[in-house]
From TrEMBL:
The keyword Nucleotide-binding does not apply. PANTHER family: PYRUVATE DEHYDROGENASE E1 COMPONENT, TRANSKETOLASE-LIKE PYRIMIDINE-BINDING DOMAIN-CONTAINING PROTEIN. Keywords: Thiamine pyrophosphate. SMART domains: Transket_pyr (SM00861). Its cofactor is thiamine diphosphate. Pfam families: Transket_pyr. Residues 205-224 are annotated as: Disordered. It comes from the Bacteria. It comes from Candidatus Giovannonibacteria bacterium GW2011_GWB1_45_9b. InterPro entries: PDH/Transketolase (IPR051157), THDP-binding (IPR029061), Transketolase-like_Pyr-bd (IPR005475), Transketolase_BS (IPR020826). The keyword rRNA-binding does not apply. This is Transketolase central region. Belongs to the transketolase family.
Length: 224
């Protein structure tokens, strides 16, 4: 089963005993820090979870461009919308259960209705939230964000793609929801693996040779 060589994937990705493991939120933190270094319009707002969402890297480097909102997710979204209306590129971070979960209406009305470039980072998404339990398991977040007009939803496959997605979100004109994990997941890609918002990549082809996505045929290929 040949793996597409053009994607420059990590070694041993089919052997979970050997593949590197890292949480996607780590890539987000690194990507946000790099984005802040490259673009002074990038600002960050958090709902009392800077360490858990890896936003602390940005906060320590750029304290004047960081706002700690406390446990106030509705304000988190609304203030970010205002900043975006005045030319900033805000990233807002919390657990996905609370943002976009708790502040969905503010995201819908103040961010997406106005089509402003706020980037919503929801960490600890899905069921793998460790000791945080069922109250923190965001299993509806993709559904509730995909239905909002103007919203783009990105669920990176690993920590490298999370970093690339964060950097790509800065350049993307419009609201973006970035979905990250708490627990470590297999690192399937490398820093050299291509990434483009809205484009799938074929990892390998069940018929024996890699082929581009969008060929018009339904086959059990693996894509990200």
């Amino acid at each position: 089963m040949p793996i597409n060589p053009n994607l420059k994937l990590a070694e041993n990705i089919l052997d979970l005993s050997k593949v590197e493991q890292a949480p996607t939120r780590k890539g987000y933190g690194e990507g946000l820090l790099e984005a802040g270094e490259k673009n002074e319009k990038v600002v960050a707002l958090c709902a009392d979870l800077t360490g858990s969402t890896m936003m602390d890297l940005f906060a320590k480097k750029f304290p004047a461009r960081f706002i700690e909102m406390g446990v106030a997710e509705q304000n988190l979204a609304a203030i970010a919308s205002g900043l975006a209306n005045y030319g900033k590129i805000p990233f807002i971070s919390s657990y996905a259960m609370f943002s976009p979960g708790r502040n969905w209406e503010q995201i819908r009305t103040t961010i997406c209705y106005n089509n402003v470039p706020v980037k919503i980072a929801g960490s600890h998404a899905g069921v793998s939230v460790g000791p945080d339990g069922a109250t923190h398991q965001a299993i509806e977040d993709i559904a509730i964000t995909r239905v909002i007009p103007n919203m783009t939803v990105i669920a990176p496959c690993d920590t490298h793609e999370a970093k690339k997605a964060t950097l790509a979100a800065v350049e993307f004109d419009g609201p973006v929801y970035l979905r990250f994990t708490r627990e470590k997941t297999p690192v399937m890609t490398t820093p050299e693996t291509p990434f483009e918002i809205g484009k799938a990549e074929i990892f390998w082809d069940s018929e024996g040779s890699p082929s581009p996505a969008g060929s018009g045929r339904l086959r059990p290929d693996v894509a990200v």
